[in-house]
Write a structure and sequence with these properties.
With 134 residues, the protein is an alpha+beta fold. It is built from 4 helices and 4 strands. The protein has one domain. The radius of gyration is 14 Å and the shape is globular.
């Protein structure tokens, strides 16, 4: 299992990318204090990737966290899951986006795509930080 942790200073939430076996990803989330993990393995069974928002009341550190998991790095899947992540973050904080204001969505998605792919290239074995109370 490889994982990379990022902190979004603007919207104050962690973003964690996991690449590898599902069971190892679940163990990583449990290690970081996330609760209510029952059924997550069944939910993602057969998936090429997924995004999930972990709310602050679902972990020991009080963090909002967005998790993207893929069994192997696939850029198309990463873009797809980043779209889900951006929608989830914007919905949570009340950012309005649509046809007439697409740029706010696409710039934020582009930012995370570049940040994640550059970091994976620089740290191919992973880059992890202990999730701390924010």
């Amino acid at each position: 299992m490889r994982e990379w942790h990022f902190y979004d200073k603007v919207y104050r939430r962690w973003i964690v990318i996991f690449i590898g076996a599902r069971k190892e990803m679940v163990k990583g989330l449990e290690r970081d204090g996330f609760k209510e993990m029952d059924g997550i393995e069944d939910w993602i069974n057969g998936a090429q990737g997924f995004h999930i928002q972990m709310d602050a009341d679902n972990n020991d550190n009080g963090n909002r966290c967005h998790v993207i998991w893929m069994p192997k790095l696939d850029l198309g899947t990463l873009v797809h899951e980043l779209g889900h992540m951006v929608m989830s973050i914007f919905e949570t904080i009340g950012v309005i986006y649509g046809y007439n204001d697409q740029e706010v969505f696409t710039f934020y998605q582009e930012y995370w795509f570049n940040e994640i792919t550059q970091t994976i290239k620089k740290y191919p074995k992973g880059r992890s930080y202990r999730l701390v109370k924010t």
